[in-house]
Specification:
The protein is α+β, with helices and mostly antiparallel strands. It has 15 helices and five strands. The chain folds into two domains: about 220 residues, Rhopdopsin 7-helix transmembrane proteins; about 150 residues, Beta-Lactamase (2-Layer Sandwich), CATH 3.30.450.
Length: about 400
Amino acid sequence: MVVCLLLLVVVGVGEDFCLPFMILELLIGYQISFYFLYQYYKIKEEKIGLNKILLAFSLLIGLGVSGIVIRNYNSYYINDVLLNNFFLYITHIIIAVAVSSFLLIISSKSFQKIINIHVTRAVSIYTIVISILIFVVQIKSIQFIFIIISIILGYFYLIFFHLELINRSKGKIRKRIILIFIGEVLLISNILIGSEEIVVLISLQHMPFITLISNFVTLFALTTILLCVYKFPIFLEFNWDKNLIKLFIVNTQNFEIIYTFNFTEEIERKENTTKKPSEIIESDYFFSRGIIGIKDIISGITNKKEEGIEKIRRGELLILLKNGDAPLSFVLYCLTVKKEMNSINYFLKTIKNEFQELYKNIILSFEDLQGLENKIFSSFDNHIKNIIS
């Protein structure tokens, strides 16, 4: 990037030089936008509300990049005054829709633990109203005031939301959100600084050079975001993992527990805390009698199999159940939890899919795995830890 800037100082800022950058910006921006959109619809049926943030990212980045490219193209290639003004209005509309869409999405109830959704809705409505007034009022000085107000409302509220989101996130997804935040700040700042209303305050003759810098900043911002989107983690509900107690994977043909994982112990290990026995014995109460306890639960499930039971409640304890897919339908996945959450249901499905993928051939090859469970399935601990990290 530095070499390119030095080259421009010598050669000059030309129209032909900037066009490839605009095309590249569109390709990268739309790639990010469509990937976020794909990730959102991929797990939409799981009804995990916070994943609406993927839709918000998709619209903000896709529309934001479109606005930047149209504005830069207009600056270099459109000489007709009327046409130039028309494309300026189009740019304002696209960017206003991008920010308003983001604000409207994060004003849903799913985000009420992060921000005040009533304030967010008010900000989004004010932003929309101000954006409309910009096109209705034709007096330049008043338009400029409206633009400054919309910048303060939209831009700084977006920053506030991202900081709150980062503060409440953890693990891998927190690192990804931080990088996306950096990229979006650069992208939105670029939209603001490169806007013609701001440039006029400096000097209109600097517009081509500022447009050029805008291209480089946009590419850097998009590249930063692009590094985060591949295999973007599912945005599960806050503290969902704190409700996990213990996982049992059972062979229903012989009532053998072939794998267990104690989430309570794992959380204690991470936090260096030890919970009182009364807080952890309930999870083992129904399974402490070994095969007898498993038989009781499985027989209850088998008798009502046609009803599609997926959970059993025992006092304050909830046991979520998921049968394996054929030919491993005899494998039952039992997850004891404190309360049911959509994120936990998704987690159990993920556990089932990964376990089947890893051990399908082994389970089908061995009629009797008794005594070999620890040796064969102990490596699955790392997969679970990776999911909950």
